[in-house]
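Researcher: Re-running this chain for the archive, since the previous output was lost when a drive failed. Same request as before.
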Amino acid sequence: MNTKVSIAGVELKNPITVASGTFGSGMEYGDFVDLSLLGAVTTKGVANIPWPGNPTPRIAETYGGMMNAIGLQNPGIDTFCERDIPFLKTKDTKIIVNVCGKSESDYVEVVERLADEPVDLLEINVSCPNVKEGGIAFGQDPKALYSITKAVKAKAKQPIIMKLSPNVTDITEMAKAAEDAGSDALSLINTLTGMKIDIKKRTFAVANKTAGVSGPAIKPIAVRMVYQVANAVKLPIIGMGGVATAEDALEFIMAGATAVAVGTANFHNPYATLEIIKGIEEYMQAGGIEDINELIGCVK
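Model: Regenerated structure tokens:
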């Protein structure tokens, strides 16, 4: 039985990774999860310099999920290269580095720093606010997305995965812009923008006012967007958004995702990824499915 999948020429032993920002760089989960069992580990966002993130409170629970406005707090590329990459290299798994920035040059600087590092794929987080454009995210304007993809691709030694924002009118327009600019793969969806008000305090539950909504509540939207994108472009897709069970992951795969990232579920069940991998294998055995690739995009 084959569970291996390929993303832009990089072979994963199974289709399960984690969503950036929900797993650190794996160290925090080392006591619960044998990282070598995962298809890949996707790191927290890494910027060219340390980012302090947003003011607190930055997280709120919501029906069917959670909201976060962490603001991509991270220690910066220097610490990441010295501490996190050596740790991940001790594990038998592929390394996907999530890259963030506030300007095109920020992204390019990080990608150039990673050129000679032993990492496998770069996931480019275009849901960061573009300071030069007044704060609109790179991933919300097809021209900006095309430009940043082209700039990153020109300097990247590893294949690049553009991570698409769902906060747009037409997700396929964004996917095509990334494909046209040379992206090797896509990941979607990032969080949906939401708001929660604390009626006792009569104020916003999150200091940032708005926050990214994730968890089971967004899964049907994410599956729909993955299906649309899979039928609009020829790039491999890492699907994500509310994945908590093997059934959830299989939905994304059947909709057209080559791999699936588990995010919010990690917070309340550190074993979620391992349970999902086992569940997929059991589904394949029960159905007499020899190769996971038979299931990718099987629903038309």
